[in-house]
């Protein structure tokens, strides 16, 4: 079941770092995503972190926790997909989701 989808556009908000790439957009246009960090590594060591917030983030009704286990996927425009399952959360109140 798809809970929500959000786009992170290509362009000037992306920057190369020593370890990979980062995206920063302080207003979260178009879908509420404000920061993405991609860290290169092997399958067990690569990392993706994402921060989204605000009215543009399409999360659904406030106060509804996300269902667990939660599958999070990141797909680029070429169709390459990365994903991870989250089986527990340190915070999941419908407005903040954090997993250890």
List keywords for this structure.
2 domains; two-stranded antiparallel sheet; single chain
Strand line-up in the sheet with most strands: 1-2-3-4
Structural class: mainly beta
Question: What is the chain-wise order of helices and strands?
Answer: EEEEEEEE
- Tell me the number of structural domains: 2
Which residues form runs of ≥5 with pLDDT under 50?
Answer: none
Q: Total strand count, please? A: 8
Describe the biggest sheet?
4 strands, antiparallel
Strand content: 35-45%
What is the count of DSSP helices, taking H or I runs of 4+ residues?
0
Globally, the shape reads: globular
- Determine the fraction of residues in helical runs and give it as a percent range: under 10%
Query: Could you tell me the mean pLDDT?
Result: 88
The radius of gyration over CA amounts to: 14 Å
Distance between the termini: 23 Å
Oligomer: single chain
Report on this model:
It is a single chain. This protein has 100 residues and is mainly beta. The protein folds into 2 domains: 45 residues; 42 residues, no CATH class. Helix content is 0%, strand content 37%. The protein has no helices and 8 strands. A 4-stranded antiparallel sheet has the order 1-2-3-4, with no helix packed on it. A two-stranded antiparallel sheet has the order 5-6. Strands 7-8 form a two-stranded antiparallel sheet. 4% of the residues are buried. The mean pLDDT is 88.
């Amino acid at each position: 079941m798809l809970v929500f989808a959000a786009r992170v556009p290509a362009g000037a908000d992306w920057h190369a770092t020593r370890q990979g790439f980062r995206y920063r957009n302080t207003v979260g246009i178009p879908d509420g995503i404000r920061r993405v960090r991609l860290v290169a590594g092997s399958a067990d060591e690569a990392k993706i972190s994402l921060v989204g917030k605000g009215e543009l983030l399409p999360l659904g009704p406030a106060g509804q926790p996300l269902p667990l286990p939660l599958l999070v996927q990141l797909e680029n425009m070429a169709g390459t997909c990365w994903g991870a399952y989250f089986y527990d959360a340190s915070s999941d109140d419908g407005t903040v989701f954090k997993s250890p």
